């Protein structure tokens, strides 16, 4: 049997091994008695309380607010589902949905794609690429606000802007452009900045996945005459897919919530071209002071996040069983 | 002689009357100021407290990103007790009055004879209905255009006084590789140019009607301003629209006052502090300002301002101290402290000679104006302000007559539902 064929068979083999481990764990697990439930509640109680205060209560309150018409500090008026109808009619909100789709898909595909690719490259020489990986992952640890100010300096339209100055220095001055001021380039400029901040996570997750591939498989492929490209395609890529999948899930959810970078780089502009649902929510709630309307858009965003995350969580849970 | 003695007695009695207020305990102030303005406020508080040993200041600092009014709302709606609020938005003041969160200060005004310190225009700015709600303690000339002296000198341009001179200066500036007007349209600063043109073409009265939505945004007066601006664009006033929309106010300040790559900037008096403290420039020598050029349409002697005022909160537990603090803030001593920070005081007691030449110019322009109006953007309902700034960006992309009709209609559509 060729190495690639063995690699293909590796999946089920690992799964059945994991099932066996699971069975052993269940067989050896501690049996809970009724008397233990009090202690269990005592242990889990503070966590549940914290969860209730920090997640459940704000969530319920946001949903409640979305049914009210609140303008500034004027008394709230019950508006039923009026805010939701108004949202559907609001051209700016519809535009923000499209912008969110573009933002989320592009940033996730680029961050995971680049991270995965870099992970494969780094796995060729894990020790020598350690400083490189640390540097890239460090960007993930930098707050979006800080990176925002850094990228603001890079994209400045005048001579102080690093990108335009760099283009000029290499003889490509004609390509210099006010990247954040053009409605056609602003979104992509912010996406590039965002991908820079996010690529560290997929890199580390995919790298860890690749490192868990038995070296014997790669060696066998080499002995069988598989080219490095074939080994990459038929062994490394499929076996590091679980890491890439988790990275995609996390990056996708993070991108749906992204706000700081857009706030600092473009403020949703020019002419609302970078206004995602998250930014729309901020503008309506905190700039236009229409709290109920902003809350309704938050609920829509929440529904979108749940739509993406719940099926994935259910699937992962089923796999865990 | 008798009259003189009597007036001295009156002054002493008046001063005594003000001093008779109970100025002890805790004075809680909602202070959201930052940078040198915050330093100035702390200095003023310390000076006031030194005159009233039984008084202690407590500051509540609203926390928010972006528009600070969100943070102030959280403080007020969260039930935090405070005595006085620093306010700079007339539309916000209206909202606070409508929600009964601030109270009239007519008694404080009368007890402290503030009519003798603040002119009618300042009183009118803070008056809603029959009541006064604010004591203005500092202001900014917003009809001013900033320039770097060497930039104009190199191009052989003298600060223009008339519209024609202003437009004519574009050619020599361009010939020197200088962009005449640095319009930062990323967030809001582009609106300053529109508002000043509106003031010169239609005057403060029309501005007030527009603010109150007594005339629509599709009115010819509004369209005329956009057409005037379109003429400027055609004359080569500015960067291309994409560059304008990439510029924030600080980029324009850098371009005009520091780098000298652009000639004219409109922003507000805080540029004075920036030029002096950050760029190390000498006011009046290295940089200065001139008033928005006259257009000969009957409104050349009108001014646009912004200001900061103190409001008495409904939750105030120390109104006596608030009254005394409000009176202090328009005193000669407070004005002297503000002058050190490059901030003018509207008080008649202020010693103008303490100001640097740039602030002096601004103060003279505002005090000699026949009519004064607050900046338009800060007086509109919040959602209308947002829309008006975005539509103005669309205008910069396409300044055609057809687009002017389109954008004024879009602003009007939002205005119709905003009041």
Summarize the entry for a quick read.
The complex is a heterodimer of chains A (about 325) and B (about 425). Chain A has about 325 residues and is mainly α. Chain A has helices at about 5-30, 35-65, 80-90, 90-120, 130-140, 145-155, 160-170, 185-200, 200-210, 215-225, 230-255, 260-265, 275-285, 290-320; strands spanning about 70, 75-80.
Structure description:
The complex is a heterodimer of chains A (321) and B (419). Chain A has 321 residues and is mostly helical. Chain A has 14 helices and two strands, in the order H-H-E-E-H-H-H-H-H-H-H-H-H-H-H-H. Chain A has helices at residues 3-28, 36-65, 82-89, 91-122, 130-141, 144-155, 162-169, 186-198, 200-211, 215-223, 228-257, 260-265, 277-287, 291-320; strands at 68-69, 77-78. Chain A has a two-stranded antiparallel ribbon with strand order 1-2. In chain A, helix 1 (3-28) runs antiparallel to helix 10, helix 1 (3-28) packs across helix 11 (228-257) and helix 4 (91-122) runs parallel beside helix 9. The longest helix of chain A has 32 residues, at 91-122. Chain A is flat. Chain B is an alpha/beta fold and 419 residues long. Chain B contains 19 helices and 13 strands. In chain B, strands 1, 2, 3, 4, 7, 12 and 13 form a seven-stranded mixed beta sheet that branches. The longest helix of chain B is centred in the middle third of the chain and has 22 residues, at 190-211. Residues 1-19 of chain B have low confidence and may be disordered.
